């Protein structure tokens, strides 16, 4: 009899699995580049072979920059939050996949029943009452097992797993997006810190010259060669230059503090490391940007948006399945014996299969389907928007790099000319061949040219960093870190 019941349960479960082959809702199909409005090439640069940008900061040949970027990748707190979200998505996938399998539970019990009348010893109390202690009793052993299985005839469980798998993949790509943002932000602030150091050096160099000019102007006033206007102009020029130093100090401190926070440290932790003055890092003059299709594959935010669209599409099927009957199968086996040795002699069991179907719900279930369809439409629009924004980022960064490089070339010419003019004016003022106003103008032009050349060099480095980030550099598409191990980038393979 027990074998017959087991066969019935197995038949019901296998029948449910066959019924579960019907899955409602649309199947997701990736969009082609043409459907997303992706051109064949960028409009601002010719198509080139894409570079490996996994560790793009090494192209700047600055060990301190490389150290800070890699430290931020390991200790940044925004990344730690992303890893936690990735772990949560993974556990959600595991929980939803568990719904594909039956739920089994077991129970065991023991009971002792004593017979207090008859069969035992008796004795008489002082008042004459006779008490029978009893001597009989019975043991009872029970063992049971139960199983339940939500078949998911129309694929609601499989669609839920499909959505969770896509969510897990999207969380991995979201981590990579944050990683790229953190790396580029560290590099950008590093460039700013070096820029402010160079501007401070420019200001102090100008102060040294202006101190000399003030001294010369004082001597010429004492000698009666010029009026005190020259001395006052020299003093005003020096004060104006000196006034820029506190502001530059404040901006430098803010950039260093920001790098400290990005690396998961206190704001002032990196002051000793950054204190030695170094040049603004200079990267390569050109980058192989490839074609827009390469960017689609490399940018993790695009891949995350694509996975979000896949999840939204799967949830349409989850909502549609609620319109159809739901099949649940439950069964149990029990045995009861007076001794452990007889535990399997008599087994009883039951099997129940039930269908439920919503008859009237005021249109709520169909409204849920329409809600899911609207969510998928929104996910598609977001996917397209993410793609176009990524292409915009690349083109803007390419133009910014080109213009900054051109400005750097022109400022190099301006700096050379201004330096020559300042030297000649300084020599002529010493010999009385020109007035202080002319000297003042040339000194101001020299400081402006120095700062302009420095700013253009920093702008070129910043544009290059932005281009690397826009192309999706800074992460390895084959791995996504997941504490405490490194997981595959494609969670669907897990």
TrEMBL record:
Keyword Membrane on entry: yes
UniProt GO MF annotations: efflux transmembrane transporter activity
Predominant subcellular localization, coarse grouping: membrane
Record keywords, A-Z: Lipoprotein, Membrane, Palmitate, Signal, Transmembrane, Transmembrane beta strand
Span of the signal peptide: 1-20
The keyword Membrane is annotated on this UniProt entry: yes
Bilayer-crossing regions: none
Localization in the cell: Cell membrane
Topology class, membrane: Lipid-anchor
A cellular-component GO term for this protein: plasma membrane
Superkingdom as given in the UniProt entry: Bacteria
Pfam families: OEP
InterPro entries (UniProt xref): MdtP/NodT-like (IPR010131), OMP_efflux (IPR003423)
Protein family (similarity comment): Belongs to the outer membrane factor (OMF) (TC 1.B.17) family.
Protein name as catalogued: NodT family efflux transporter outer membrane factor (OMF) lipoprotein
